[in-house]
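Entry 14. Structure prediction run on the chain below.
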Amino acid sequence: MALTLIKNATLVTMDPEIGDLEGGDVLVDGQRIAHVGRNVSAPAASLVDGRDRIVIPGLVNAHIHAWEYQLRGIGADWVGFRDYFANIHNNLATRYAARDVYLGDLLGALNQIRGGTTTILDWCHVLRDAEMTDAAIDALEESGLRAVFARGTTKPPTREGGTPYQKIPFPREEIRRLRTGRLASDDRLVTLAMAILGPDWGEYEVAAHDIRLAREYGLLNSAHTYGRKGKRVVEDGMPRLAKEGLLGPDHNIAHGNCFSEDELKIVLDAGCSITATCLTEMLNYEQAAMLGRILQFGAVPSLGTDCDPYFNSSMLWVTRHAFQHQREMDNRSLREAGKWPADQHATHTRDALYWATMGGAKALRLDSKIGSLTPGKQADLAVIDTRGMNIFPALPGGDPAHAVVMYAETADIESVMVAGRFLKRNGKLVFPAERLKKLNAELLESRQRLMKDGGYVYRRAPNGAPPERYVF
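Output returned:
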């Protein structure tokens, strides 16, 4: 197998037994990390100069709708679910064909690689049939990214005489087809999960059916669950699922911002993971991202970017915002308790980087394979050049985790490796440039056709009235 040796880098391993290493080396043998240390010798290896570079585990985006990539630049001023549902689920999503899904997923995945992300959970809820499903999988496989493909279902408007989506259980035949076919193995780059309605969006019997189906086929299942009182299809759905033994480490909750303390304890005691998508949530959610509250129960947050119509799905941005958001919440909570300022801050930049690496790996049940620079794990990593003006001169003499979280941008991601294979090298994607150019042109045509077919024309929203009183 091919050997690659990254020499003399600053390593932020996220492995507590190894820690950070200045002047450290990473030896990659085939798909795996063979050795992490100093003064590593491997005469047969291809050498990568790590001087003035930081090497981190690849970022893990635990919640993204990659198919929305061609719908960028239209949603920042939408008002919550009213406008998202009206414009996406009730309109533009219904116009997608298999090729549109392929284009969105492929270019969305390549954009993740550009920014140092090596693994995503692709929450794909635009799919109406097997052709669209296969197109999404084709795209993810072509990108080279590690992906947990969460096969979802649509939320279209109900036609006269039709069945509302809240009453429709997950299509068993589609999961059987995938799990006994191309996604039968969990030892491949693209693996299968289920993106289900859950009790916030579906009836209880549907939620229970879907979780049982996922367990029958040994799959992670994930649901959008917010916990808003009076705005859920099944108000007591999560406690009921827990009582029936249907919640566990195989259930991932996206968001969870409005959970009461009792309900949060129920889902975390059951072993569920929770993924915060801080940038999306702060646009329209009424409660803070689920970060510090999870930590108080001894659990670990994971992070995701969520929706491209709102902003660039950069895990660097999300990680930075998660740190700043939780630090703000710490300070406000201390002030309310009369204990501000803190003697020492509870939340550090290194914590946020952990959420974006090991936190995501744990949520996706991949922490034995990815999330840290640990010998034996898959060689998923990002090499960050510190010589550019975004970062310089943060090192030497500074905290490399701080440099990554607070200074690094996509332009500083020099190289990205997934399973021992470089997908970005010397600042450029390895993906063929001419093919990318053609795909970009085709994606632009897809965007324009989707908007034309849906009669969608972007119009600036008027400014609403500010709150009468700000909470502070």
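The chain has a mean pLDDT of 96.
Filed with the rest of this week's runs.
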